[in-house]
């Protein structure tokens, strides 16, 4: 018996022997088709020697077991499924050998041969002990039938072939385990490298975007400063507005749009204090909800002529997604937008 190491961290449920053998996707469906065809070819021999209902039921049990041990996506295979496969093999063998028809009794071990393929897949899916339990169950059924003189002694000896099949696959699984662990580590390292490269690419893309924006909005005034020209009052005001706009891009990048930036610039030009804050609540939020926050902020900025306007996107996990607080000498107004896009306005 070859034990399966199931200690945490040793087996990755997303990378088992079937990944190593390429048994996923189209290849897995082809393998399933071949397995089911092989089981059917073995089990069809029972129709000549057993009652029709017993032959049909035995075939159905083994075909369903063969399908389940392949289509369940979790490795190691869930224990209830593995136990069903082992029990189905013993039951199918029992249906074949406990009601043979006379002269063809020596042919009643075809179910045992078909079961060996199901047990082999169980081993590949990480259920070695359950596979050997199934082998013991099939052998017990044949032994009971042999004691009752219903099958020949040479037939019982022939059941050593399924035992040899499961033993060979068990040895194969033990030999492949170190390679499986090494390939899992290599894949995890490759995934970490890919994630790091994606992060670097995203950071580089954001840096390029920010530099392009800085070049577009700040180059003209910076060139005048570099030339040593004396700035007019209008140009100094332009520098103040530009500095605030660039600060918005750093503190609230998800709020910066052409529409909102234009409204903020206009409000600042009228003497309104504008503060934009982004604490990351837009992550995973639909675009139309994000748009509703921006529209509410733009509306308040366009209407403000004095006081202050604070636009904040709250952290993830809050019921309220964003708030727009407009304070003026006449009144204060707060607008809340929740994660479902509902807008609530509070007037003081």
From TrEMBL:
Keyword Transferase recorded = no
Annotated membrane-spanning segments are 27-45, 51-74, 81-99, 105-124, 131-151, 157-176
Please tell me whether the keyword Transmembrane is annotated for this protein: yes
Q: Where is the signal peptide?
A: none
Taxonomy, superkingdom: Bacteria
Q: Which controlled-vocabulary keywords does the entry list?
A: Membrane, Transmembrane, Transmembrane helix
Protein name as annotated:
Signal transduction histidine kinase
Give the organism the record lists: Nocardia acididurans
